[in-house]
Design goal:
The chain is mainly beta and 652 residues long. It has five domains: 129 residues, Chondroitinase Ac, Chain A, domain 3, CATH 2.60.220.30; 110 residues, no CATH class; 85 residues, Immunoglobulin-like, CATH 2.60.40; 113 residues, no CATH class; 113 residues, no CATH class. Helix content is 14%, strand content 41%. A hairpin with a 5-residue loop joins strand 37 and strand 38. Helix 4 packs across helix 6 and helix 7 crosses helix 8. The radius of gyration is 38 Å and the shape is elongated. The termini are far apart.
């Protein structure tokens, strides 16, 4: 492989002893040997290799592209008591940048060196001894399982979550492998692995794996589509067969990421603001608050590039980023990169900043509150940024902490659980109650067995179908659900149910006792707001309904008393019945097997006479459980309709 650096090999020589020293290498590299690394003076040679084949070295693996520089450091086999540092020059920040080494000209296999970081235009790696080293790039797609971005994202998430990260290497006669495992708990873990089974150096077969044991695949590997998801998404797997070239590419990505610093560093500073003000900067998917009175240093996830822009400024100011184009400054983001970012602000003299929540056209552009977001997590109709009393919620307020806690307090047998099979192929994450193995209620996030479909769900269902007969007998509504199509939506709802389950069941609010039963700061907030009889008492709390009809002769309380004594009266829908003899019944009628009939109705005949019927009539024996039948002629159609309004309300 030809390296377009110099026309011929160039060698630099130096004698370095116990005090250590730095050696400027041909082609722009640097070798730094610290004090104590050598126990005696050693004659050091560093040769820039411009053609590996002509110089007698093994050609680089097929996955290596855009090779930058290669050096042979001699004497081969020299070891250091303290690690030395080799800096290799390159012309830009790239994903997949790796350093490969070979022991000497007779070594037939280049292997990746762990712990590559970047400093300015240099890729830096620690050395424990002398070999040949080359800087190159893993070609996109060379490893079929994952690429460099997937590897650094995996390691960044593990670091952010505080997971224990373990690394394994095996180079026996039977197997060669490179493995990283992030232990997220006693059982949950995420694994990256490249494995090549071999016999006496000849590859038989290999595999590369990305595996998650747990429910966080989309967090660890957001850009990868798994091949297999097990029940309730507990184990998710991506695996490909490998030949030796593909194995080498996967191994190089895993090895090169070991021990790096997992992100690019931004050095943020603000000028032109008062000392108590700050600017919010967007860097990739992160938002960072930068105070005016001190410099801020932050890490952003490793990757090819990161876009930096101004997200929010103090009222009355405008801010820009030095060097930005169209308001965006694009920077390299490979691990080890470090960039100063200067934010320059000034006061606005001739325009005002638009405030999103005050209903005023502050900036005079003809639009009001145009900067308001569309996010409303608790579904109260107030944008999150304008909500003085936000409640943790998701799915447009279908699930909130209070909703889930109320569910736990009101539903018999309700409890919290994760990955619970509540019905065939349906798994609940949150609050649920399983009543008879066929009927279940949820205030939870639910998923299918493969974990490919997620919904926020609240209510009752039978056998996973829309048959709510059993639910109706429990007095529970059917399931209402909202599809969760992104990992952010899923995580938001899981956060809601997790917090609610941690707080536990809420005491149901009694709407009529003047006490804050559920501890939310509101008293009797569940009242209906209706006052049908106009006595100033909410219908939910009114022990007496004072409405009447027919000039006060017929009262709502009398009608209600019949329904209370015989609840079965309401089982028959309010309707008009032809009862024979040219007569029609409007209202409710219950005919018992013992021959009694109970009415809450108006009966009219062909002559237009309307007769009020309320109570029990014994026609052929039997006994009544309500008051005896009262009949009363009504003076008009209007009076009949007025009395039927009371009947309908009583039945409801």
């Amino acid at each position: 492989m030809i390296l377009a650096l110099l026309a011929c090999n160039t060698t630099t020589r130096a004698t370095i002893g116990t005090d250590g020293g730095d050696l400027e290498l041909p082609g722009g590299g640097t070798l730094s040997i610290p004090p104590g690394a050598l126990s005696e003076d050693v004659d050091i040679e560093a040769t820039l290799i411009t053609d590996l084949d002509d110089s007698g070295w093994e050609s680089l693996p097929g996955f290596a592209t855009n090779t930058r520089v290669a050096y042979a450091l001699t004497p081969h086999g020299l070891t250091f008591d303290e690690p030395a540092s080799l800096s290799l020059p390159h012309d830009g920040w790239e994903d997949g940048l790796v350093v490969l080494r070979a022991d000497d000209e007779w070594d037939t296999e280049w292997q990746a060196v762990p712990g590559v970081s970047q400093d300015g235009g240099m890729a830096v790696v620690e050395l424990t001894g002398f070999s040949a080293y080359t800087l190159t790039v893993v070609e996109d797609g060379a490893c079929p399982c994952f690429d460099a971005t997937d590897v650094v994202t995996y390691r960044r998430v593990a670091a952010e979550q505080g997971w224990e990260l373990r690394e394994y290497r095996d180079d026996s006669i039977f197997v060669r492998s490179a493995t990283q495992m992030a232990q997220a708990g006693t059982q949950d873990r995420a694994i990256l692995r490249a494995r090549l089974d071999r016999w006496q150096g000849n590859g038989k077969y290999g595999t590369c794996d990305a595996t998650v044991v747990g429910t966080f695949w989309d967090t660890v590997f957001p850009n990868l589509d798994p091949m297999v998801r097990s029940a309730a998404n507990r184990t998710t797997l991506l695996r490909y067969p490998l030949g030796r070239p593909e194995y080498a590419a996967c191994e190089a990505l895993i090895t090169a990421s070991m021990d790096d610093d997992l992100g690019a560093q931004l050095e943020l500073s603000v000028s032109g603001l008062e000392t108590d003000e700050s600017v919010t900067i967007s860097a990739g998917e992160d938002e960072i608050s930068v105070p005016a009175d001190e410099a801020t240093t932050t890490l952003v996830p490793a990757g090819a590039e990161v876009d930096v822009s101004v997200a929010a400024v103090p009222e009355g100011s405008t801010c820009t980023i030095a060097g930005a184009t169209g308001g965006v400054l694009t920077l390299s983001a490979w691990s080890g990169a470090s960039h100063p970012v200067a934010i320059v602000c000034e006061a606005c003299d001739d325009w005002e900043v638009e405030l999103p929540c005050n209903g005023i056209d502050d900036d005079g552009d003809g639009a009001v509150d145009e900067n308001r977001s569309d996010l409303d997590g608790d579904g109260d109709g107030i944008a999150d940024e304008c909500d003085d009393e936000p409640e943790l919620g998701c799915a447009d307020g279908l699930l909130t902490v209070d909703v889930v806690r109320s569910f736990l307090g009101e539903v018999e047998g309700a409890e919290c659980g994760w990955d619970v099979g509540v019905s065939e192929d349906i798994y609940a994450h949150g609050a649920y109650a399983n009543h008879d193995e066929t009927t279940f209620e949820v205030a939870a996030v639910v998923s299918d067995e493969e974990g490919s479909q997620w919904r926020a769900a609240l209510g009752c269902a039978t056998d996973g179908e829309d048959d709510y007969d059993t639910c109706a007998s429990l007095g529970r509504p059917g399931v209402e659900s909202v599809e969760l199509s992104t990992s952010q939506e899923i995580d938001a709802c899981l956060q809601v149910v997790d917090q609610a389950c941690e707080l536990g069941a809420a005491t149901p609010e009694d709407p009529c006792n003047g006490i804050d039963d559920d501890g939310d700061g509101d008293i009797d907030e569940n009242q209906s707001g209706d006052d049908a009889d106009g006595d100033g008492i909410d219908d939910d709390c009114d022990d007496s309904d004072d409405r009447t009809c027919n000039g006060g002769d017929i009262s709502m309380n009398d009608i209600l008393a019949v329904f209370v004594d015989l609840p079965e009266l309401a089982d028959h829908p309010y309707d008009e019945y032809d009862i024979g003899g040219g007569r029609f019944l409007n209202g409710y009628l219950h005919e018992a097997t013992d021959g009694t009939r109970t009415y809450a109705a108006v009966i009219d005949d062909s002559s237009g006479l309307n007769v009020w019927h309320l109570g029990c009539d014994i026609t052929s024996g039997g006994s009544c459980v309500t008051s005896e039948l009262v009949k009363e002629a009504l003076d008009s159609e209007a009076t009949a309709e007025e009395c039927l309004d009371l009947v309908r309300a009583a039945g409801e």
